[in-house]
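Handout, section 4.2: multi-component inputs.
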Amino acid sequence: MSGQPLLIFAAKAVGILAVVLTAATYATWAERRVAAWIQDRIGPNKTGPFGLLQPIADVLKLFFKEEIVPSPVDPLLHFITPGIIMTGVIAATALIPFAENLTLADPPVGVLLLLGISALSGYSVILAGMASRTKYSLLGSLRAAAQVVSYEIPMALAIASVVLMAGSLSLVDIVKAQSHLPFAITQPIAFIIYLIAVFAETNRAPFDLPEAESELVGGYHTEYSSMRFAWFFAGEYAHVVIASALITTFFLGGWYGPGPDGVWWFAIKTLFFVYFFLWVRWTYPRTRYDQLMKFAWKVLIPLGLLNILITALIKIWG
Amino acid sequence: MKINPYFVVLLMTVVGLVIAYGVLAISMFLGKRNPYREKLNPYESGVKPGRWDYKANIQYYLTALAFLIFDIEVVFMYPWAVKVMDLKFFAFIEMLIFILILLVGYIYIWRKGGLEWQ
Amino acid sequence: MAGIGAGFEVEHQEGDVLILNMGPQHPSTHGVLRLILKISGEKIVDCQPDIGFLHRGVEKLTESLNYVQIPPILERNDYLSPMSNALAFVLALEKAGEVEVAERAKWIRTLFAELSRIGSHMVAIGTYSLDLGGALGGGTSMFMQTFEIREKVLALMEEFTGTRFHVNLVQVGGVRYDIPGAEWVKKTRKLADEVDRWVFDNLLPMMEASPVFRARTKGVGYLSPEMAKLYGVSGPVIRGSGIAYDVRKAEPYDAYDKVEFDVVVEEGGDNYSRWMVRGRELLESTKIIRQVLDGIPTGPIASRPPVKAPVAFKLPKDKEVYARVESPRGEMGAFVVSDGTTKPYRVKLRSPSFSNLSVLPHLVRGLTIPDLIATLGSLDPVFGDVDR
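Output:
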């Protein structure tokens, strides 16, 4: 390896990481401001201009808080679980094609690798509940297990039809296949299925059942405090940012757009979907557990299978 | 020279591990600690917590089983999706047969009430 | 006396049934209800409510207070509609002592009862959306809207009585304060319009259009009319089961026989119907408020001068009376036994929350935990009122 590309690569990696982590931190700020806006409130506005320093203040506060490890928990799992989401998110940034020449890694089976990495967050939620060894957390974790597992399939089916369209498992190739028309238009059913499944995958309202603070109090993270709680919290927002980036990659043509192509198109689309996540959360009540599962198994999965068959037919004939 | 993409992913995973667990480890030493019995009690709405380990409902296992079947199917679908343009109708018929076999199982689960939560 | 948690040993568990303790320290038990649940998966096999965490011995306390001191204490019972507690008690006193009530006071009482109803229903609707949507989800948006309106109601009350909440308005023979002026009337009319607009523009369309909301409430927590009668529920809960029972019509008090309004009835018997009843009752309340503001007669606001000295009121010996009002939660009754002194011999309160809550175990058997929370919210219990 020569020195120069490595240095550039390192700069890119650090830059992407910094941007994604900052975006995740400021997603918490955006959440509060958007929620306030939807609810005719003001939201955080005292810490810095427009309350922009609020996330930093929050993180610092949680950083210095007392760490309570309740007596019945499994101490090792209790330590390990909060970090899993964050690790997965950071690993996933390596695969996302932000722009034509701003992709850290483009392995030929990028899609599979990405699915594997993003499935890690499910383990975090499931194991967190198990590690707590209390009833509410256990219920949350059981919900998480069933939910994450059920929505993995429609999500994978939706992506399979994207792969079918692009004819490649490389994320860069998938984006390039959308240079004229994004898959959101040519694959509307897959797009909607993926959008719904992503909400379940990131445990965001209206599918935030493992957390469900009005029913299970905090669900899987009831027994977590201090930075351990903060990682679940930050992990959720980081996951939202990454999920929005993935929607952009799979269905909205990544860096392509009207006018000059580039990373700004990617950023605009991603930010729109981050906003979309917040918007939906503050608009809909939470669904019920069995309804959610029924929806996945009885509607999304058959629809996804049908979509793949139809896509294959059109692709072969067309 | 091109860097091996898998190595990059591995590298980023390591970076992620370091960031995530480094912060957790530092935080362990930062906050002051004052544990006592009542504080370390887990949450159960204000009473003494009871036993948490019980036999989970059979429905969860059924879901897990159904998931396994469908997930394997999806795994099969990815290479098929890449190669479908080379194999044309052969691939389509093959997938059709595969999905039909799966459909039998799916209908069986549905009819047996495996998808109903009660 | 045994402490909290006594009589509830959870070590013994059989099969796949988990015993889950929900409350009193739980975000969605509307205060301090404790539920001991037996769940299988998420399905509720058995539910056993445990009440009394907010018991203050109000009924006993009244025996050592004289009649004038009691209404402000009673207002602390159902703290979401303070006035209806005091009103039921004062109506009982008036019945027992055969006190003439000033005509204008009757209308003012009606006006205030309806304002309280709007305030209370706003809390019920808002917190019910919290139960559905979670304190950090979409439910909060509805909650904020309802509390914005409730805040305006409370501001009107403050302008009227000097107190936002525990208004202490009613006294034997009338009310303590008169309408503060034309400005207040104008504001109240504006509020009535605003409530109507909110119900038509936000509440009803939301209930019609939101698929998640409908899926969560339709057919959940079904209460049959027979069961409703058996358990003695009242208010929006019984009207949501298709029985048109309303104390305001069944036994009109104050000015309710002089104003036009309909008893809101929904046939469904489920959470959706109970919610719908509350939503539509807001419209009836604004209707009554407008009629009161139009038709209120002039004259004195109390047949007796405002009571200053605490000993000023006595009931004849051995009187037993029961008076009831329609509080936002249902039939609120006060039973008073006198012994000829300035203090009551015995006071028994019939609180609507208690009767409504008693139906909960019957409703939730076979439902899931989220539906339990939703069903509890649809009964709208107030624990100051349940435990007294």
